Amino acid sequence: PATKKELTRYVKFGIDLYKGNPYFVPPLIFDDVNTLTPGKNPAFEFSEAQSFMAYRDGKPAGRITAIINRLLNEKTGRQEARFGFVDFIDDPEVSRALFETAEQWARERGMKRIIGPMGFSDMDHEGMLVEGFEEMGTMATIYNYPYYPEHMRRLGFTPEAEWKEFYIKVPERIPEKYQRIADLVQRRFNLKVKKYTSRKKLAEKYGEDLFRLINDAYADLYGYSPLTDKQIDYYIDMYLGFLKLDYVSIVVDSADRLVGVGISMPSMTKALQKSGGKLFPTGWWHLLRAMKGHNDVVDLMLIAVKPEYQSKGV
């Protein structure tokens, strides 16, 4: 297993490669290190992974993590590996060496196919940017250079799913038509919107149900890996402790059962760029300032509606 020092070097390479790029948003270094560390990330209970780094002339030139999610493979009946956390300089020999190494690792473990970029679960970064290279990234999405998809095509990879990102201008008030439909749906299904002022109470009342709802709502999405009980506990601790409750919408039925949830948060993009992926010495201050709303953009992080209520206006 890689040491913390090695994983830190691995994560930092993925940040240093984009130095000076105005659109790239770095992850928090400690967060990615924890994700890649057995014992820290509960996904290792049903997954195995190996991270690799490529060097050119003694300098880091690329990285890739090969992952086998056995829980998902049992569900789908596939012998499928994933690759994620992939970055490389614009050198075909480097990208070929990375992917051949990851594929060989997967092949030795009986895998027949490899897909990505994906992480252990959908809570990790996934996907490869193929257009919009001059759009600002977000904390939840991957930014990569335009040469990446060219390397992928050269290596024989083909796109299997397409994800789109939208930029929405918030109107000064809710359009009358939307408000009318919302009121109608709320009355028809006897629903109510709940607001919380205590993160602790929100976590106790709906924390587990919230992530179980996400499991149900996202079940048929491409490559979705259902969150286990331990992962749910992990993400409750990780996310619900710092959410701004003004940005959380909870919709329940007449029996107080969770029907829909919407979680957004003030954009961390500029704060993370200023932090360079580090909390200290000043990164925490930029992040705290952004959380308090010192910007005019919010990121829609998670929206989920119970399957039986989907396409009904909830």
Describe the structure.
- The protein contains ten helices and eight strands.
- The protein has 314 residues and is an alpha+beta fold.
- It is globular.
- The protein starts with a helix and ends in a 9-residue tail after the last strand.
Structure classification: alpha+beta
Query: How large, in whole angstroms, is the Cα Rg?
Result: 21 Å
Which percent bin holds the helix content?
25-40%
Order of helices and strands: HHEEHEHEHHEHHEEHHE
Report the principal-axis shape: globular
Low-confidence stretches: none
Tally of helical runs: 10
Short description:
It contains 10 helices and 8 strands.
What secondary-structure arrangement, pairings included, does this model have?
Blueprint: H1 4-16, H2 29-35, E1 47-56, E2 59-69, H3 70-76, E3 80-88, H4 92-108, E4 113-115, H5 147-154, H6 176-188, E5 192-194, H7 199-218, H8 229-240, E6 248-252, E7 258-266, H9 269-275, H10 283-291, E8 298-305
Helix pairs in contact: 1-2, 7-8, 9-10
